[in-house]
Design a protein that fits this description.
This protein is an all-alpha fold. It contains eight helices and no strands. The radius of gyration is 16 Å and the shape is globular.
Amino acid sequence: MPRALLPRRLVQLYGGLVLYGVSMGLMLRAELGLEPWSVLNQGISRHTGLTIGTVTIVSGALILLLWIPLRQRPGLGTVSNVVILGVVMDATLALVPELHSLGARIPLLAFAVVLNGAATGLYISARFGPGPRDGLMTGLHRRTGRPVRLVRTCLEVAVVAAGFALGGSIGAGTVVYALAIGPLAQFFLRRFAIKGLPEQPSPVVARGKASPKRAILQK
């Protein structure tokens, strides 16, 4: 890949990861339901006494261990994802106060979901490797031959169920995120695509069958 594109790629990678962590913290402050992996991390946080950001870091590191039998190779984006999301999420929660008015929480949720889509487009377009959870999904897809969409759905249903059992928050925000993140991420992937980088399917929203050409996007 052209060296001249490296500065922009790095800015998109780290800008996207920071915004992703902010969006996760804002969704938590909205208190209307979290995205799947945050449901699980919040549930674990409530039982361990660790901050949700710390749990996000630890769980990301543990998920990377599952990459070994799947023969997945982490990149700069993968390792950065593990550390940055949790740190920024905790910082966001420390800076943004709790909101009690539903009139404030609903717009905050909407903003957080759109911000999450923009952040996804930014960091994935940088092409420094998938996050640990996306890599787990695509690794299972390659090893099992199952459609990416099916693998993603099964993983997220299991994660939400486990998180809910542990006391994680699900609600309207969880549903809104599930419905909106695919179209939003597709839009922002096109918006932030870097000219000069080879075309490459993204795992963010898995559509269709096992063919990687039809796996158009995914978190």
